[in-house]
Amino acid sequence: MTTKAIAIARVHGHWSVHDLDPADVDDLDALTDMMRDLGDGPVVAFLEEDDEYLAVVRVCPDDPDPQVFLSDRRVLVTSDLAERLFADALPSMAGLTTPDDEDDASAVTHAAPVGDLDLLGDLGTPAEALLELIGEEGMLPGDVISALSERAGAGEILDDARG
C-alpha cells in the first residue's frame, strides 16, 4: 500500500507545507497532536492511500476537536489505516462489517463521503464544491488535494513541495 500524507499549515499568516508519516501515529489524537505542532492557525492534513480515497483532517487552535472528512466511507472496513485513524471520529460508521444480508449491503458497498463536508468552507471550498471535486470523473485524490490547496491559497507552495 502506498500512503501519502501532507499538511498545509498557517504560520504567522502564511501557508507552509509539511510531509506527514501516518505510520508514526496510532490514532486520530496522535495525528492531531502532530498537526497542532505545525502552525498557529488552521492546519489541514490530506491523506491518500493507493489513489483509493482521500481523507482530510483539519485542526484549529481555538477548537479542541478535529474535523474529519473521508471521500469514501467503505475505507473504514477496507483500510487498516483509515480504520485506525478515523473509525472513532466517525462513530456512525465504526464497527462496519461486510454484511450477510443483501438489504444491509449498501452500508458497506456503496461509495459515499462521510464526515464534515464543510470543514474547508472558510478556506474556499464549501460542501457542494467538495462533493463536486470528489465526484468528478477522472479526479484522483492527488488532483483533489491540489484543487483544495489552490482554493485555500496554498496551491503554489504545495506544488513546489511535491516538485
Automatic annotation (TrEMBL):
Protein name listed in UniProt: tRNA adenosine deaminase
Superkingdom of the organism of origin: Bacteria
Organism name: Frankia casuarinae (strain DSM 45818 / CECT 9043 / HFP020203 / CcI3)
